[in-house]
Amino acid sequence: MSTIITNESLSNRPLASEALEQAFLNARTFNAFTKETVSDETLKQLYELMKWGPTSMNSQPGHFTFLKTNEAKQRLKSTLLAGNQEKSLAAPVTVIISSDTQFFNHLPEQFPAIPDAKKMFESNAKFCQATAERNSSMQGAYLIIAARMMGLDCGPMSGFDNNAVDAEFFPEGRYKSNFLINLGYGDSSGNYPRGPRLTLEQTTRII
C-alpha cells in the first residue's frame, strides 16, 4: 500500500543537506552573472513560492519591481552608486524591493481575524511605517532564499539613492524602496573571498 504524504506529515522534517547547502551553506552573494536569461514565468514562480513567508498580521507590504529590459535598467543606473552600476546593468534582472505604504487596505481580506486591523494602521503613521519597512525587509529575504532554492543566484545591495529610485519608479508616492537584488545565474569569477560570520558566542544568548 502506498503512503499518502500530506502537508502535516511533511512538517517538522529536516531538509536534506543538499537543500541546506544550496540555500545557505554554499550560497554566495554574486556580483557577476552568466548571459542566461531569467524568464517571466520563472519570476512568477519565484513570487508564488516566496509569498508564503510569514508577515505581521499577514500584512504583506512588500512590492517587487522586476527590471529586465535595457530601458528599465537605464532608468535605474543614475540612482546607483558607481560601484553598483555596471553589475546591475549586466544582471539579467534587478528587483526593487519596496514597501507599500497602503498595505493596510488589504487587511480586511488578508487578516479578518482582527476586524479593525486596517484602522490600527490608518490612525498610526509611525506604526504603519515601521511595520511596512520591517516586513518588506523580511519578504525581500524570503525572495533571496526562494530564488536560491529555485536555482537562481542573488546579489542584494543597498548602494543607491532611495529618493531617486522612488521618484523614478514610484512618483505617485505609494511605494518606498527598501533595497535591491540582482538576480540571475551566477558567474563565480566575480565573487570576493567569502567573509567570515560571527560566532554563536558573539551573537546569541539562550536564557
UniProtKB/TrEMBL annotation:
Molecular function terms from GO: oxidoreductase activity
UniProt keyword annotations, A-Z: Flavoprotein, FMN, NADP, Oxidoreductase
Domain of life (superkingdom): Bacteria
Nitroreductase domain mapped to chain residues: 29-185
Membrane spanning stretches: none
Coiled-coil features, chain-numbered ranges: none
InterPro entries hit by this protein: Nitroreductase (IPR029479), Nitroreductase-like (IPR000415), Nitroreductase_HadB/RutE (IPR050461), RutE-like (IPR023936)
PANTHER family tied to this protein: MALONIC SEMIALDEHYDE REDUCTASE RUTE-RELATED
Designated name of the protein: Nitroreductase
